[in-house]
Amino acid sequence: MKKNLFGLLGLSTSLIFPATSLFAQQTKRPNVIFILADDIGYGDLSCNGEKTIHTPNVEKLASRGVRFTDAHAVAATSTPSRYSMLTGHYSWRRDDTGIAAGNAGMIIRPEQTTLADMFKSSGYATGAIGKWHLGLGDKTGTQDWNGFITPGLKDIGFDYSYIMAATGDRVPCVFVENQRVVNLDPNDPIEVSYEKPFPGEPLGKDHPELLTVLKPSVNHGHNQAIVNGISRIGFMKGGKSALWKDENIADSITSKAISFIENNKNHPFFLYFATNDAHVPRVPNPRFVGKSGMGARGDAILEFDWSVGEIMKTLEKLGLAENTLIVLTSDNGPVVDDGYQDRAVELLGKHRPWGPYRGGKYSNFEAGTRIPFIVSWPGKTKTGVSNALVSQIDLFASLSSLVGQKKKEGVAPDSQDYLNTFLGKTKKGRKYVIEQAGALSVSTSDWKYITPNNGPAYNKLTNTELGNSKEPQLYNLKTDRGEKVNVAAQNFQKVEELKVILEKEKAL
Ligand code: NG6
Ligand code: CA
């Protein structure tokens, strides 16, 4: 145990800081909860204007806070997006932040300072619950799934963790609590591989008759280990008693989030609550099945909305609502068919998960990274809509500023303080944001420049316009938010200007 100066002098801190001032200090600092959805698009939440879906709890949250219309994730897929948000360091500065396998080593290095470290050093209790997808253990494939998985979330600032290692569609399909697999029977150890199958373990591609819950979409992978009647990405053996139940994932993580809040009700806390909804495989709880009229994807969004409502109810019950700042957002844009035959495409109807924007998850176009974003701190945030240009990269510096911490040299190098913008006190946003999909893009409030690259223009499997082109692309977002007309040739100056911004950022 480290002793601080007061301890060494035999003094208790309460003698040095009178109780009232300590209390005052603590009440000034709000609890902070991130609710991070998975693959939920701008148009998937009714507060953003689509009439085809009803998400009342998110609407209620939005009505108590600021709803942003021009907010961006750093990347159009999960791992790089989450990496950037939690570290304040652009994922594209590293070449190892692509979509992580379920047995990837921990991508955030213990020596990096995360948002959780920042809160912890300010005296907050910290927790991460839900989807992780940023690797665990030292190196790919070296984790001890049957023992203590280290390094882990404790080494990057989270006191408590209850996580899915990667995604719902990647093995191992188990929860990991404080770096140990939950409910594991030592007589049935887990083995995980992303290289070769385990002899005797049936695979989805050979045994379609065992796929009783969901089948993969044609030619869309997801045909390896079979867990709970669904084939996944990666190979897995054993750990039967520890397997999660897909229809209970939202219930499990929501109840853990509630317990975390209850356990820390007398203490400032930071909770990173990352839902599995609406990622594939979509197996919402029977309570939500059929409720959206849009099939499993819509039902999963209603399940997400339910989780949001449960968190809000808990805060109200404990009298914490007024002193808790909630950020609700998504890791990347929407995708309808992401690999399973869940009828999301057939049942979509008039619903536009991407809202008025082009593209979706994986895409350089706006819908890849223009995500739902709400900041609510009742009584403290102005209520209403902000069209300020904001990025998840800035949450680190802005929340450091909220808790009165000065960002240290080298920490969260790409993150800037936009606290007043996030709190709705000003509509002054960023001059530009940088986004990563197949290529890098730079957007201002008015323009979007997508760098030329050799990637495919279209992904047939997911029906996504990826926005890759060998030609430079420039769109006028003010007159053409759907990015229909490439005006690069007519606006040479603008292209140059945005190119220079990007080159300067890359050189940092
Ligand atoms: C892709 C998967 C997709 C999804 C994605 C990660 C295939 C063909 N597609 O590789 O289903 O898992 O990775 O999604 O395997 S994310 O939201 O976590 O980034
Ligand atoms: Ca995602």
From TrEMBL:
It comes from Bacteroides sedimenti. Residues 1-24 form the signal peptide. Transmembrane segments: none annotated. The keyword Iron does not apply. It holds the Pfam family Sulfatase. Residues 30-404 form the Sulfatase N-terminal domain. This is Arylsulfatase. InterPro entries: Alkaline_phosphatase_core_sf, GAG_Ulvan_Degrading_Sulfatases, Sulfatase_CS, Sulfatase_N. PROSITE patterns: SULFATASE_1 (PS00523), SULFATASE_2 (PS00149). Belongs to the sulfatase family. Keywords: Hydrolase, Signal. The keyword Signal applies.
